[in-house]
UniProtKB/TrEMBL annotation:
Residues 54-64 have a biased composition (Pro residues). Residues 387-401 have a biased composition (Basic and acidic residues). Keywords: Cell wall biogenesis/degradation, Glycosyltransferase, Golgi apparatus, Membrane, Transferase, Transmembrane, Transmembrane helix. It comes from Rhynchospora breviuscula. The chain crosses the membrane at residues 804-831, 837-856, 928-948, 960-979, 991-1011. The active site is at 305, 730. GO terms for biological process: cell wall organization; cellulose biosynthetic process; plant-type cell wall organization or biogenesis. Pfam families: Cellulose_synt (PF03552). It is found in: Golgi apparatus membrane. This is Cellulose synthase-like protein D1.
Length: 1027
């Protein structure tokens, strides 16, 4: 036997801390207390071990050992010793038998240290041996795994630590500590300032002082509601490598390495092909079909609430184009996978593309996409010509069969015809009974069938232009759905359409998770869905009801004139809410847990008590046994839907197949039980069963659950699914989940997850804000007001939802405060009696703290100062127009019962091809322009009047004039984007308009001076200026 130069055979032991300690055989062993403990088996157990060193490639490069080398046959001591051997057939032919032994006492391993001179690198590269595995176990050459019954596997030697899928990243204390301190300082200063203002009234103009102090108190209250939920912002990060290792890596439970991820159903909602162009919807669909998620686990549904044949045929065209677009994206790792965005992006398309045929493939697919766009844009004319031809043919056949048509007979109905020469069951171009927008049959058509469980890889020659060898050609299942609509039924707008999709998808695919998109939002990051899944499947993920992604927008003007990006909300407020109970649901780009949408309570929740929720305790799980006859409606709504209640048709309807799918979706959505700390988990490998193909009874059942009568006398829209009763059903739905104790997560990815479009026209933008504010007013006057929330809602989360319902009412005080500078200049008085040191000091401290808070908020949220300023400007513009109209509409609904109608936001692109931002300069008059216009005009005229009064007075009081001008300038600076929007494109506003405005201001100022001449009274006692 070859030994070290010193003639010693060295051993080592691993201590409990993981450190290796050498143990020479021929020297006395000084036993460590760890070896004497009962944990290691004691000194006697250790002394009884006899360790023999068998020949291995590590210590015996020369041919096999012999008895003359002094190596006796292997002897093994006690029962807890484990012998593992494996022989290589190619070396047995040379007479070299390699066997290894490993001695394993109770919790201690003796590891031999390498001491001989041996070329390890050459042995590793010239053989299939691997250190850590090869010394005790030879990995099979074909890479397969050995069954547990056949002996040891490589997993016996791989003690991998458990990895979480996500982690929280707290904002550095160097940012948050000063931020919280400044909030406290500003709160104290505001309190002192308001107390000083109340105790120091302006006796000469009590009406002006009273209006100002009421507005200032409300602004302080509104600031407090907005600021308090921002005290604990956090960031999160997902580990995609850990997700792949847990769910898609070969293991004893998953020998072939198939995906163990849960199923996912993706919803796309659209309603009007005129305002939501089919080409935009088709690009959204293509980006979803090509996303990086297991094909057999992904299903896509589109809800066409207008039942338009144009949308249906556009989706059929997109499904055909997906057969070449999706494999192209997979082959070359295309990002983004929206064809329109991909071909319009700037930069070198060949960057990071390694395959030599990329340029050829891209050129061909670009031509195919151009032809695809031509076909989509030509669909309206194609459908019209086809329908006209078939209608004429049908009329001709009717005349030939029945002779002349009677004079008093009804004119023939002009139907809309499909490509197979059958009548379209949805809405016709010429509305007719049973074929109009609010009166048509339910439609469900599977455009792409269920994919096979096994990958279908392309082969050379399968396609005449693309080499798709080794590329998976399968496509996810895609279903077109248009729910039934009949006269006399309240179809509940978008919320009703989403609930119909929930039921139909539960019958067809029943993915435990649901991702919903507006038709103009597409997947920009093909791995974003996997990041969202990390939060759902991590430890504690069974308590997460949804994962909200931030909304990012394209096509916004570079200056973002109307704050369309809304980064202050998405990167500031929503990130802060993530540190509480979770962000709000904002309508699109949200990954839901299907089980939570069904109205169930979370498996675990806390209840918060005390003045500000400082005391918490685990919530008791309510059951029907605890229900009392006298329970209130609010208490009844908070009871969980237990297993005994699931079978009640009054909850979910009378579809037995749908009710049976609920427990399946709950089980499949559980996290992986791969760690003792994971509660309510499922075993690994439980989701490897192939999906059953669709059959006729299943599709018929799906059609029945989208009928207009299915929701009658059920809990849909009340406790189950999307909640009805508000134009902002998204906020209400998220609030109901948080109110039951669920948590939500905000997922901000390094590369934008999803992107969409936003209205850049001033009128469209104000109408969008009007709809949001109207929904908030509805929430304030409904049972969804956070004042009525349960104890499962955290205190600061409750404050955030209170702010959602209250913020529109700030518009009343904002309009008054924007007119105060003009009233001051007109009347000659100010909100305070004198500009003394106390007033100016308070004003200075409040302004400085606000600036510092804004800088720190920019620091932890990542927004830019310009974005913050644009948000402040549009807050004033929207507050004096859309928010004020929303408050009035809400009062009319509560008092007079007048229903609120909302206008669908147009997603159409600008028609001017020469100017991409042509829509920005288009002026569309609306009554929402009146309040801001009045404020701007009054302040401009007030400045001119104040200047004239000061100039014509015997003793000009310029300090009084400058004080009023400063606050008027503050108002006008916030209104600057509104003024630019009214001016339209630069140079299009005639100069005469500005001339007439100036002349009008001068005339009004002269008339005011004539009616109310300036006063010459001054009072400079005590160093104060009387204003």
């Amino acid at each position: 036997m070859a030994t070290s130069p010193s003639g010693k055979v060295k051993f080592a032991r691993r201590t409990l801390s993981g450190r290796l300690v050498s143990l020479p055989r021929d020297e006395g062993i000084d036993y460590d207390p760890e070896l004497n403990s009962s944990f290691s088996g004691g000194r006697s157990d250790y002394m009884n071990y006899t360790v023999q060193i068998p020949p291995t490639p590590d210590n015996q490069p020369q041919p096999g050992p012999s008895e003359s080398d002094g190596i006796p046959r292997t002897q093994y001591g006690s029962h807890n010793t484990r012998v593992i051997s494996n022989r290589r057939e190619d070396e047995e032919t040379n007479g070299i038998g390699r066997s290894t032994s490993m001695m394993k006492p109770s919790n201690m391993s003796l590891v031999r240290c390498q001491t001989v001179d041996f070329d390890h690198n050459r042995w590793l590269f010239e053989t299939t041996g691997t250190y850590g595995i090869g010394n005790a176990f030879w990995q099979p050459s074909d890479g397969e795994y050995v069954d547990e019954d056949d002996g040891v596997t490589r997993f016996d030697f791989m003690d991998k630590p458990w990895k979480p899928l996500t982690r929280k990243i707290k904002v550095p204390p160097g940012v948050m500590s000063p931020y919280r301190l400044l909030v406290v300082i500003r709160l104290v200063v505001l309190g002192l300032f308001l107390a000083w203002r109340v105790t120091n009234p302006n006796e000469e103009a009590m009406w002006l002082w009273g209006m100002s102090i009421v507005c200032e108190i409300w602004f302080a209250f509104s600031w407090l509601l907005d600021q308090m939920p921002k005290l604990n912002p956090i960031n999160r990060a997902a580990d995609l490598a850990a997700l792949r290792e847990k769910f898609e890596t070969p293991s004893p439970y998953n020998p072939q390495g198939r995906s163990d991820l849960p199923g996912l159903d993706v919803f796309i909602s659209t309603a009007d092909p005129e305002k939501e162009p089919p080409l935009v919807t088709a690009n959204t669909l293509l980006s979803i079909l090509a996303t990086e998620y297991p094909v057999e686990k992904l299903s896509v549904y589109i809800s066409d609430d207008g039942a338009a044949m144009l949308t249906y045929e556009a989706m059929a065209e997109a499904s055909a184009f997906a057969e070449v677009w999706v494999p192209f994206c997979r082959k070359h790792s295309i990002e983004p996978r929206n064809p329109d965005s991909y071909f319009n992006q700037k930069g070198d398309p060949t960057k990071n593309k390694k395959k030599p045929d990329f340029v050829k493939d891209r050129r061909w697919i670009k031509r195919e996409y151009d032809e695809f766009k031509v076909r989509i844009n030509a669909l309206p004319d194609t459908i019209r010509r086809r329908s006209d031809g078939l209608n004429k043919k049908e009329a001709r056949e009717r005349r030939n069969a029945g002779g002349d048509t009677p004079v008093d007979s009804d004119p023939p109905v002009k139907a809309t015809w499909m490509a197979d020469w059958t009548n379209w069951p949805g809405t016709w171009a010429n509305p007719a009974p049973d074929h109009s927008k609010g009166d048509h049959a339910g439609i469900l058509q599977v455009l792409i069938k269920t994919p096979s469980f096994e990958p279908v890889e392309g082969m050379s020659g399968d396609h005449p232009y693309l080499d798709l060898t080794g590329v998976d050609l399968r496509l996810p299942m895609f279903v077109y759905v248009s729910r039934e609509k009949r006269k006399g039924y309240d179809h509940n707008k978008k919320a009703g359409a989403m609930n119909a999709l929930v039921r139909a998808s539960a019958i067809l695919s029943n993915g435990p998770f649901i991702l919903n998109f507006d038709c103009d939002h597409y997947i920009y990051n093909s791995y974003a869905i996997r990041e969202g899944m990390c939060y759902m499947l991590d430890r504690g993920g069974d308590r997460v009801c949804y994962v909200q992604f931030p909304q990012r927008f394209e096509g916004i003007d570079p200056s973002d004139r109307y704050a369309n990006h809304n980064t202050v909300f998405f990167d500031g407020n929503m990130r802060a809410l993530d540190g509480l109970q979770g962000p709000m649901y904002v309508g699109t780009g949200c990954l839901f847990r299907r089980y939570a949408l069904y109205g169930f309570n979370p498996p675990r929740a806390n209840e918060y008590y005390g003045l500000y929720g400082q005391n918490k305790k685990p919530a008791a799980s309510a059951s029907p046994d605890h229900m009392t006859v006298g329970a209130s409606k609010k208490e009844m709504e908070m009871l969980p839907l237990t297993e005994a209640e699931v079978d009640a048709p009054k909850r979910f309807g009378n579809s037995k197949r749908f009710i049976d799918s609920i427990s399946v979706a709950e089980y499949q959505g559980r996290p992986l039980a791969d760690h003792p700390s994971v509660k309510n988990g499922r075993p690994p490998g439980a989701l490897l069963i192939p999906r059953q193909p669709l059959d006729a009874p299943t599709v018929a059942e799906a059609v029945s659950v989208i009928s207009c009568w299915y929701e009658d006398k059920t809990e849909w829209g009340n406790r189950v699914g999307w909640i009805y009763g508000s134009v902002t059903e998204d906020v209400v739905t998220g609030y109901r989940m948080h109110n039951r104790g669920w948590r939500s997560v905000y997922c901000v990815t390094k590369r934008d997850a999803f992107r969409g479009t936003a209205p850049i026209n001033l009128t469209d933008r104000l109408h969008q804000v009007l709809r949001w504010a109207t929904g908030s007013v509805e929430i304030f006057y409904s049972k969804n007001n956070a004042f009525l929330g349960t104890t499962r809602l955290k205190f600061l989360q409750r404050i955030a939802y209170l702010n959602v319902g209250i913020y529109p009412f700030t518009s009343i005080f904002l309009v008054v405060y924007c007119l105060l500078p003009a009233l001051s200049l007109f009347s000659g008085f100010f909100i305070v009696q004198s500009l003394n040191i106390a007033f100016l000091s308070y004003l200075l401290v409040i302004t400085i703290t606000l600036m510092l808070l804004s800088l720190l908020e920019v620091k932890w949220s990542g927004i830019a100062l310009e974005e913050w300023w644009r948000n402040e400007q549009f807050w004033v513009i929207g507050g004096t127009s859309a928010h004020l109209a929303a408050v009035l509409q809400g009062l009319l609904k509560v008092i007079a019962g007048i229903e609120i109608s909302f206008t669908l936001t147009s997603k159409s692109a600008a028609e001017d091809e020469d100017d991409f931002f042509a829509d920005l300069y288009e002026i569309k008059w609306t009554s929402l322009f009146i309040p801001p216009l009045a404020i701007i005009t009054v302040n401009i005229v007030a400045i001119v009047v104040g200047f004239s009064k000061t100039v014509y007075s015997e003793i000009p009081q310029w300090s009084k004039f400058l004080g009023g001008v400063f606050f008027s300038f503050w108002v006008l600076a916030h209104m600057y984007p509104f003024c630019k929007g009214l001016m339209g494109r630069r140079g299009r506003v005639p100069t005469i308009v500005f001339v007439w405005v100036g002349l009008l201001a001068i005339v009004i100022s002269l008339l005011w001076i004539t009616i109310s001449p300036p006063s010459t009274k001054t009072d400079s006692s005590n160093g104060n200026i009387d204003i």
